[in-house]
Design goal:
It is built from five helices and no strands. The protein has helices spanning 7-21, 27-35, 39-63, 69-80, 86-93. The longest helix is centred in the middle third of the chain and has 25 residues, at 39-63.
């Protein structure tokens, strides 16, 4: 299956065990990514992980007033659709270290 996903996906698949060991993703998340039966399922599994990682930072941005709840919800929806907007990454970096 990895040969149909491209280089980035292949690299991610090769790193899953290490990511679980470091606490960056859960066993369940790793298993969902491994079990993906095509590019759409793979992208959905990765989007789920990204959304989980972003949630605490989005909550912090809303709490400190640097983002409205509506904006945070819009970003959550974009992440759930598999988008990974650059503007969001930059904004979230200002809200603490990477969640594990």
């Amino acid at each position: 299956m990895a040969e149909h996903l491209g280089k980035k996906a292949t690299r991610l698949l090769a790193r899953l065990d290490r990511m679980v060991a470091k606490g960056r993703i859960t066993d369940g998340e790793a298993n969902a990514i491994r079990a993906a039966d095509g590019p759409e399922a793979f992208d959905a599994a990765v989007a789920s992980v990204r959304a989980r990682h972003a949630a605490p930072r989005l909550d912090a941005a809303v709490e400190d007033g640097s983002m409205t709840a509506a904006d945070a919800d819009a970003f959550r929806a974009r992440l759930a659709r598999g988008e990974h907007p650059r503007g969001l990454r930059g904004h979230l970096r200002r809200h603490g270290s990477r969640p594990h």
